[in-house]
Design brief:
By secondary structure, this protein is an all-alpha fold. The protein is 64% helix and 0% strand. Helix 1 runs antiparallel to helix 4 and helix 3 runs antiparallel to helix 4.
Length: 94
């Protein structure tokens, strides 16, 4: 179970979902402020582009939040397991 949590942490770092620990912008904020679409955009300049930009940022924020909650759920599952088990306990056998 701990290996799964480590993989979550590696992925969080890779996609920037660990912004709460690094002090960086969230993926949604980064997309919203660094994308060249919207009212002041260079690629696509319009109010529709601004609306779509907000919708995409919201979706990115939702995925990031789900990912972080899933990691936390796995950590809580792992933390409920006993640190040591008896030699006849099935949880101690691989």
């Amino acid at each position: 179970m701990w290996r799964v949590i480590q993989k979550f942490d590696e992925a969080r770092s890779s996609i920037g979902a660990d912004f709460d620990h690094t002090g960086a912008k969230s993926p949604a904020d980064k997309f919203f402020t660094e994308t060249d679409i919207g009212k002041e955009g260079k690629v696509w300049k319009s109010t529709l582009a601004e609306t779509i930009k907000g919708s995409i940022a919201d979706a990115i924020g939702g995925v990031t939040q789900w990912f972080n909650w899933s990691r936390q759920d796995r950590y809580e599952d792992w933390n409920k397991e006993p640190k040591w088990v008896g030699k006849n306990d099935s949880r101690g056998k691989w």
